[in-house]
Amino acid sequence: MEFALYMPISSAATDLERAADVIDSVSTYSKNLKWVIIVDDSSEDRPLTQQLRSPPSWELIVLKNPRRGAGHGHTSGLCIADFCAFQYVQRLTDARFILKLDTDSLVISSFELQIERALLDLENVGVLGVIGDSFGDNRTYRFMQQSARIFQAIMQMPDEFTAAWNCAREILVHLGVSDRINFANLKKVKTLIERAISNGCQLGQYCQGGGYVVSRELIERVATDPVLSAPAFLQRLNIGEDVIVGLSCAALGLKMYDLSKKKEPFAIHPFCLPFSCEELTRLGRSVIHSIKGSAEAEYRDYFREQRQSIKTPSRLIGS
């Protein structure tokens, strides 16, 4: 199955260096990568197609984040970047799925066969990755609970713009939602929540955002959905892009599947991974996040050396 790699990058120079390392890691372990899509959040015009190496067999596409610096910090920026990438893939490629990675992710072993089998064997696949709580870390559980509280507050909004709206708005601002969000946009979010609940979604459930797979079916449904096909309303919403993608998946009648057990591909954690390089290899993981932190150089050096050994096999004795 030919697929697209999508990666959002910030304006930081370190993000560009990390992105190059991520692309190299995917290329080492992939046979079917055809499109590399970068959504650039920088306000400057940067020659990223020249700065990021791409083999002739790939198509490297650089898109500017449509939010153009507006919105609520990195959360809304990532939401808009995601749907920008989804729209491009749907309109201009025949990719069978998207592998979404952050710049602090890496691919450390082959993954395509497991992803292809899951897409073929599982029912109504929308997203594959690490669903909800990550390796028993209470911080991810609290994040899930916070998202659920925001969604519950949105569900209590009145359907008409009345005095009760101001009370609902104050609750949302207290929960961390942008004070610039307007009534019309929150009504769209409420519509998504209602649809997700009717499809059996548990409020706050989401797929960890550092690395996951989005199916072609989800991309197609987004393109024709009356709410999600025009995602600018997400710009003022301070909710993580992984939560919004999970909500959208459920609202569109598709399912999220966890592939994070031993010998399954994903080891995704929003903070520093609780595994050493050797443990990740022993557990048979393929797609990892986050390697930021004090051990980042160790992760990158270790797995870069492994990739180099694959690219340059040892010469036979006497050859």
Key traits:
15% strand, globular, alpha/beta, three-stranded mixed sheet, Spore Coat Polysaccharide Biosynthesis Protein SpsA, Chain A, 10 strands, single chain, 319 residues
Offer a concise description of the structure.
The chain has helices spanning about 15-30, 50, 75-90, 110-120, 140-155, 165-175, 185-200, 215-225, 240-250, 275-280, 295-310, and strands at about 5-10, 35-40, 60-65, 95-100, 105, 125-130, 210-215, 255-260, 265-270, 285-290. It is an alpha/beta fold.
Beginning-to-end CA distance, first to last residue: 37 Å
Number of domains: 1
Structural class: alpha/beta
Uncertain spans: 314-319
DSSP strand tally = 10
Order of helices and strands: EHEHEHEEHEHHHEHHEEHEH
- Main sheet: strands, sense, barrel: 7 strands, mixed
The helix content, as a percent range, equals 40-55%
CATH class, anyone?
Alpha Beta
Strand content: 15-25%
